[in-house]
Amino acid sequence: MELNEITQKIINAIKVRNFREAENLCNQFLKSDSSNPLINYNLAIALFSLGKLNEAQKQFEKVIELQPDYAEAYYNLGITLQKLNKYNEAEINFRNAIKLKPDYSNAYYNLGIILFTFGNFEEAEINFKKTLSLKTDFIRAHNNLGITQQKLHKYKEAEASFKKAITLKSDYIEAYYNLGVTLKKLGKIEEAKASYAKAIELNPEYKAALLNRGQIFFEEGNFELSLKDFDTCNNADSRSRALTSLYALGRVQEIYKRIEINSKLDDENINVAAFAAFIAKKEKKETANNFCKNPLDFLNFSNLSSHHKNPNLFISEIIKELSHVKAIWEPVNQATHKGFQSTSNLFKNPNGNLKNLKSIILDELDSYYLKFKKEKCTYIEKWPSKKDLMAWHVILKKQGYQNSHIHSAGWLSGVIYLKIVPSFKDNEGAIEFGLNGVFYNDPSSPKLIYQPKLGDIVLFPSSLHHKTIPFSSDTDRISIAFDLMPKG
Fold first, then answer.
1. Phi, psi (deg, nearest 5) at residue 80
2. In the chain, what percentage of residues exceed pLDDT 90?
């Protein structure tokens, strides 16, 4: 069979999504000529479409070996690597595609996505804008540009980006939702509610929009409306927020009833566990939630000095390593104020002193579990068998602090103090633990204030609220926070 004939058959098979036939035709031809870049390219496309990503990667690499100036091969190799979560390699290939084809809009777009994933929002914005300069009607690029601008606190520009996406696609649900988030940040509350309402109109079960509109209603004091949206949403987050709405309405009996009805469903729900601990202490009556009834009792304090002969030198070396890790000033929707916070997981394939630090933490987790292993609660009885850690560092500047918060995605949380500040007065720079949340509190609720020492390691349930007390010193306060993640 002639090359032109078999090429046309392969292209036709791909067009009608008959990828198995395309794969077979390619392999048939390559038996006699294994070095044809066009056939290898189409084979890679067929393999990718069949979900055979590792094989597709090899074929795209073969194409590039045969024809180093094949821009589409670099691009599709980047897409394949992206699917395989090989983001660094994907970035390289998108950049190579752009070098060969400077007007490659899709390559700029996907490079923007990779950069966003890395937390490099400034360069991601540049690439999304470049995409749109080449392809002005690229709807998803307008939406993702807006999301990136949110991260950069450019809310006015984000508003314009989402509105442009909606102009191009009037039923773009995600853009209406993202516009709602931005409008709220801009203080345009009624417009934000209208944008969420449009998203909900297009999809009555759109949970994110229901959750956020419900939160606006709550903050306005419209607790019945917030309860309605939270109940319609009905996910792990909204069930805890429904409890706070009931608390604001004074319907304590219903709170206990709901916690009991959902006790199995929310057995590992960190947000519900936090509220349950609060309401039980306030009402002096236990709830049916058994995650961790008294989280303050599960605090544990230790120090790096018990693991290292020269902890100060060890800490200084870690700080040097962290200076090369990208951190963002006051990241959006995070607790950090007047400070930087890193975006990547410090303990994912760490090297050097960070690797040693991770090992120390794993040892501390073993000791912690042995200390509390006899406790009869979900927190201990369903202790994660796999030590999967998520870690980031925080650098607080003068008057820096972290709002009261919990780590709803974690199981156990911890913090290691690498640089502390002098406490001039009122426990400046200390960490405060307690049961009060942002939207529920009681003046008599118990709390514990701890002034950290250099090298301290503090472990606690992820359901325990904590915050940092602002400080007036010009000294940076540097810490590494981490979560032991739940099973799965």
1. -65, -45
2. 81
For residue 4, pLDDT beyond 70? no
Specify the pLDDT at position 47.
Answer: 86
* The pLDDT of residue 211: 97
Question: What is the token pair recorded at 71?
Answer: 């821009």
Sheet holding 447-450, edge to edge: 447-450, 431-434, 465-468
Q: How far is CA 15 from CA 6, 18, 70, in A?
A: 14, 8, 21
C-beta neighbour count of 123 within 10 angstroms: 15
Q: Are 38 and 19 in contact (CB under 8 A)?
A: no
Contacts within 8 Å (CB) and 24+ apart, 13-17: 13/46, 14/42, 14/45, 14/46, 14/49, 17/49
pTM of the model: 0.86
Question: CATH code for 297-484?
Answer: 2.60.120.620
SS3 299: coil
- pLDDT on residue 326: 86
Q: What number of other Cβ atoms are within 10 A of residue 72's Cβ?
A: 17
Q: Looking up tokens 């590792």, which residue turns up?
A: 54
- Per-residue pLDDT, 6: 66
Query: Which tens digit of pLDDT belongs to each residue from 276-294?
Result: 999 999 999 999 999 999 9
Q: Percentage helix, strand, coil, to 5, in the chain?
A: 55, 15, 35
DSSP 8-state symbol, 196? H
Number of residues assigned to the chain? 488
Domain residue extents for the chain: 297-484
